[in-house]
Amino acid sequence: MHLLLGQTITFSADPFKEPLAGCAKHERRGAVAIDGGMITDLGPADDLRTKYPQAQVTDYGDALISPGFVDAHAHYPQTAIIASWGKRLIDWLNSYTFPEESRFGDPAHAAEIAETYFDLVTAAGTTTTVSYCTIHPESVDAYFTAAAARGLRVLGGKTCMDRNAPDTLQDTAQSAYDDSKALLDRWHGRDRLSYVITPRFAPTSTPEQLDALGALWAENPDVLMQTHISEQHEEIAWVADLFPDAKDYLDVYERFGLIGPGALFGHAIHLTDRERDRIREVDASLIHCPTSNLFIGSGLFDMGGLMEQGHRIGLATDTGGGSSFSMLRTMAAAYEVGQLAGTPLHPAQLWWLATEGSAHALHMADRIGTLAPGSEADLAVIDLSSTHAIAQRAARAEDIWQAIFPTIMMGDDRAIKAVWANGSCLKS
Ligand code: GUN
Ligand code: ZN
User: Fold this and answer.
1) Least confident among 12-21, 107-116, 151-160, 356-365
2) Is the peptide bond before 214 cis (omega within 30 degrees of 0)?
3) Residues 211, 252 contacting (CB under 8 angstroms)
4) pLDDT confidence of residue 26
5) What is the set of domains in the chain, with CATH numbers?
6) Is residue 427 over pLDDT 90?
7) Nearest atom of ligand 1 to the alpha carbon of 203
8) For ligand 1, which residues put their CB under 6 angstroms from it?
């Protein structure tokens, strides 16, 4: 047994639904007990030290022991093209993304980028990622192999696309089905890995391919399905052209069985009222990608309105359309987008989104994203005074949220003092 000492915060309710005062409990001198990869106990440090006199103790002082961050939408193959200048979505895909993704049939390239990716995200305190891979099965093998070597709980899948992409990056309806099925059988449920059925988005799949992936999902209803929806106006108009019979963008997915409680819809910025209502009705998840939405110029996600409607929402980097690997930077962008949209998010709401909220969007909040006993021991230990600029501001803080907010707005990997995954220390 291991006892980690530091500040802790636990949420007893969703801070978007309940008044803040009642939903978060702060322990100034807290302890998290971990054993066999699980969190087994939580409480005041003095109590747990007395209760477990034999435990090995690591004292993180004033640092905050948090659940590891959960990044609910990313593209690990875009690691090396992050921060590519000057394009909007469709041109950005054609100019930067597709040429780079074309290289992932080479297992050595895929392995190298997967290693770099997990080095970067774990240094940033992220312990769960949900990634699109490329059309190549090799890209999926590289992703899951690198994650398993680090003991991480990750999700991902082969990105399927059989039109409107270079020849080097197209599969077919049949090969998308066959390869996805083989990868699902190989990886889903192995170690801490989960397969996600992954049609890239409506414009790059034929109706036949969407139909095949809808069938695969119906045959494997316990896996998640991820795709993109309503990110940019040009994209939405293109979908209307390609699928003239569909009522709207969401209806394209619905016609092929690609909607349900396990659906993860990335971006979801420009949804119609019908789409919002329908997504809420089926309890599908929306994934907010704020740095990406600013970087590619996509628009302002309506967090306030969608949360009020009761949507299930996760937070994500969308690396490399997003401009950072860090969920701290992503929380900051979510705050800024909230300000522009007239809904300033409280630091408790931001922190909840990056941990339990994202886990809830993945239907995994019983396993990750919280400090609850019975959860898996994936943790990020956060130094709340990691730079001079942050420290001098945090010194004025009157409560824990004022102490955390400067790190949300100005923090980076220097704030990540330690990372634990599956009960083992990955970074210290
Ligand atoms: N829509 C379809 N593919 C992508 C992608 O790779 N990134 C983003 N941001 N949007 C997409
Ligand atoms: Zn994406």
Assistant:
1) 12-21
2) no
3) no
4) 96
5) 2-67+370-427 (2.30.40.10), 69-361 (3.20.20.140)
6) no
7) 2
8) 75, 89, 93, 97, 200-201, 228, 231, 292, 296, 318, 321
